[in-house]
Amino acid sequence: xxxxxxxxxxxxxxxxxxxxxxxxxxxxxxxxxxxxxxxxxxxxxxxxxxxxxxxxxxxxxxxxxxxxxxxxxxxxxxxxxxxxxxxxxxxxxxxxxxxxxxxxxxxxxxxxxxxxxxxxxxxxxxxxxxxxxxxxxxxxxxxxxxxxxxxxxxxxxxxxxxxxxxxxxxxxxxxxxxxxxxxxxxxxxxxxxxxxxxxxxxxxxxxxxxxxxxxxxxxxxxxxxxxxxxxxxxxxxxxxxxxxxxxxxxxxxxxxxxxxxxxxxxxxxxxxxxxxxxxxxxxxxxxxxxxxxxxxxxxxxxxxx
Length: 305
Hints:
Elements: H1 2-14, H2 27-54, H3 58-61, H4 76-83, H5 95-125, H6 131-142, H7 150-159, H8 166-191, H9 194-202, H10 207-215, H11 220-235, H12 239-244, H13 252-260, H14 269-302
Helix pairs in contact: 2-14, 4-14, 5-8, 5-11, 5-13, 6-8, 8-11, 8-14, 11-14, 13-14
C-alpha cells in the first residue's frame, strides 16, 4: 500500500504524461481553416449572386448592385422560368424539359447501375477465360472521347428507329456509363474479404445467391457512388441531349440553354438565374442527401486498383 502511494506521489510530482494538448487557435489551425473559409466563400459567391438576382424584379436588377439583397422579394422569375419562358418557338418554360430529364435519368441510372454491378461482381469473383482482356477493353472505353462516337451513334439510332426519341437517349447514357461503373464495382468487390465469397461457395451458394445475399447488402456505399455519378452526369448532360433528341424531347439542360441564349426582347437576368438554379437542384439535392455514403464508397475501395 505504501509503495503504491509513493509511486502515485512520484507520478504527480513528475507532471502529467501523454501528448501535449493542441491549442485551438494554433498557427496551423488558423492557416488551415482560414484557407478553407476563403475557398468556400470563393465558390459560394456565384451561388449567392444567382439566388439574390433570381429574387429581384428587373427594375432592381438594372441598378447593377449584384451583391445587394433584394429590396422586395419576388418569385415571379421562378414561375416564369418554370412555365412561361421561351425555349425557342415554344414558351412553356423548363417544365417540359424537366420531365424529359426525369424520364431519361431514372431508367438510365437503374439499368446501367444494375448491369455494371453484375459485371463488376463477375470480373472480381468469377474469373473467366479472357476476363483481363475484357476488363482492359472496358477501361479503354472509359477514356474514349464522346465526340469521336457522335456520328456513328447517330447512324445506329437512325437505323433502329430511335433517333430523336427519349428511348434512344436512354440507351446512349446506359452504354456510355457502363465502363466507368463496371470499373468502380469491380474494384469495390475486389476489396471485400475473399473469405466471405469462399464461405458462401462452401455453403453451396451459386453466382446469383452470393451476389444477392452476400455482396449486395455490403455494397450500399458503392451503389451510392454509382448513382451520384450517373445522375450528375446524365442530368447535366447537354451534348447527347442536343444531338440525339428533338425539340419535343429536349432534356432540361438544352431547354436552359435555349432560355439563356434567347436574343428576342429584353434579357431577363432574374429569369435566367432562376432557371439555372432550378436545373441544378436535383444534383445538389442528391449530393446533400447521400454525401456521406459517397465518401464511404470512395474510401471503401472505389478507387483502389
